[in-house]
Amino acid sequence: MNIMLGNLNINQIEERLGFDFPLEIKEMMIDTNQTKASDVEKGKWHCFDLPFVLVCGDVEMATKIMNSLEGKECKETLQFAHN
């Protein structure tokens, strides 16, 4: 059984990563955040604190956010998962 805790917002994610998302991605993430942790819907995302993992409702959402991290040096490792 996996236990995942937390509901991080964009600012908390950025703080942990050590940089800001591009404005276009940040605005998209504001509109698509799902606060309910279970069954993340298509086109939505939820970020857990422990472990530090961003769960997306579909591979397209995961790819958009993950691509925005390309070339960035992160302070912490952010894992991605999708339904």
Q: What features would you describe in this structure?
A:
A hairpin with a 4-residue loop joins strand 1 and strand 2. The protein is built from 3 helices and 3 strands. Strands 1-2-3 form a 3-stranded mixed β-sheet. The chain is globular. It has one domain (10-82). It has 83 residues and is an alpha+beta fold. The longest helix has 10 residues, at 23-32.
Give a quick rundown of the structure.
The protein is an alpha+beta fold. The protein is 33% helix and 14% strand. A hairpin with a 4-residue loop joins strand 1 and strand 2.
Average pLDDT, rounded to a whole number, is 95
Measured by DSSP, the beta-strand proportion falls in 5-15%
Radius of gyration, rounded? 12 Å
Tally of alpha and pi helices: 3
Regarding quaternary structure, what we see is: single chain
Given as residue ranges, the uncertain stretches (5+ residues, pLDDT < 50) are none
Largest sheet: 3 strands, mixed
| Structural class by sheet pairing and helices | alpha+beta
Number of domains: 1
- Overall geometry: globular
State the helical fraction. 25-40%
**How many strand elements?**
3
String of helices and strands: HHEEHE
Strand order of the largest sheet: 1-2-3
Distance between the termini: 17 Å
Highlighted features:
83 residues, alpha+beta, 33% helix, 14% strand, globular
